[in-house]
Design a protein that fits this description.
Number of strands: 8
Low-confidence stretches: 1-11
CATH topology: Rossmann fold
Structural class: alpha/beta
Mean pLDDT: 94
Strand order of the largest sheet: 1-2-4-3-5-6-7-8
Shape: globular
Helix content: 40-55%
CATH architecture: 3-Layer(aba) Sandwich
Number of domains: 1
Number of helices: 13
């Protein structure tokens, strides 16, 4: 895959303003705009638009709000969509520490409160699934419904063996690599297109399922000052996240939860994990998709989310 990165940005704190990124659906900027709020000294960014009850979208690794772009216009017909950049990615601040699930969950609760949303639903993909679960478990009151997509939550999902089957090794090797201190940054810096390009090519149904133009956007974002370090910090803090997840399992979630997986990725895995930690769980498997479901199969994902979110919309 040939990756040509977009030019440098003049935006504060990173790359990824709604007016900067290519490949948005027609009319996107007529509906959505950039929004900022500061929580406990950390400035967070989101792209917000639409009408209806609030719906928080939490991105995964190595992405930011842009991963939801193909779904956001349809969702905005029924919801006020808040596609957030958690700390460390996109246009949000990139502190030196604090990338455990409890810290990020607390910040996103604070962010939604700053935007005036007392009650909301959550959809989280990849490490956004870690955060969505943490938000619902740590501060359950504001969250009406939780949908999680194609990830394995540290502390809930058993850690695979160091040397296991080939598929698992290829799918999860980045966990160990990303957790290393310093040397991984030195190996990847200047080669972000190779490392992150490989992630998209190898974890999608086909190597070109995520277009080169979109991969270039993600590579450009992670080349911003502090972004490469920050993206690894999510994994370096996994020890804390695992401890937090294990404590959360003492009390199951009572809200409705939907676990979604790509058929060529974790499949029913998200549903199975959430059945360990929640009482009211349904599941969906998205055909013709691997890990990057929101971009590989946006229409199918919208179809899976619609009946799950309908009661929330109707009751708002």
């Amino acid at each position: 895959m040939s990756i040509s990165t977009p030019p440098a940005t003049t935006a504060r704190g990173g790359y990824g303003a709604v007016t900067e990124v290519p490949g948005l659906p027609d009319g996107f900027t007529d509906v959505f705009s950039d929004t900022y709020a500061t929580v406990d000294g950390v400035r967070l960014h989101a792209v917000v638009g639409g009408e209806g009850p609030p719906l928080l979208l939490i991105s995964g690794w190595p992405q930011f709000w842009y991963q939801w772009r193909l779904m956001m216009p349809a969702l905005a017909e029924d919801f006020t969509v808040v596609a957030v950049d958690p700390r460390g990615c996109g246009l949000s601040d990139k502190p030196a520490s604090g990338y455990d699930s409890a810290t990020i969950a607390r910040e996103l609760h604070g962010f939604m409160a700053e935007l005036g949303h007392e009650r909301f639903a959550v959809v989280g993909h990849d490490i956004g699934m870690w955060t969505g679960y943490a938000m619902a478990a740590d501060t359950p009151g504001p969250i009406e419904r939780l949908a999680v997509i194609d990830a394995r939550i540290p502390g809930i999902f058993p850690s695979p063996p160091l040397v296991g089957d080939r598929w698992t090794a290829d799918f999860l090797w980045h966990f160990a690599f990303n957790r290393v201190r310093d040397v991984n940054e030195r190996l990847v810096e200047g080669r972000e297109d190779i490392y992150f390009g490989h992630q998209f090519a190898s974890k999608s149904l086909t190597p070109d399922a995520i277009p080169a133009e979109a991969v270039a956007v993600y590579v450009r974002a992670v080349r911003e000052p502090g972004a490469l370090r920050a993206t690894f910090e999510n994994y370096r803090d996994i020890d804390l996240t695992m401890e937090q997840s294990k404590r959360r399992m003492a009390e199951k979630l009572s809200i409705p939860v939907l676990g979604i997986g790509g058929a060529a990725s974790t499949g029913t895995g998200a549903e199975a994990q959430m059945r360990e930690v929640a009482d009211d769980v349904t599941g969906a498997v998205i055909a013709d998709a691997a890990h990057f479901v929101p971009e590989e199969a946006p229409e199918a994902l919208l179809a899976a989310l619609a009946p799950f979110l309908a009661p929330y919309r109707a009751s708002a």
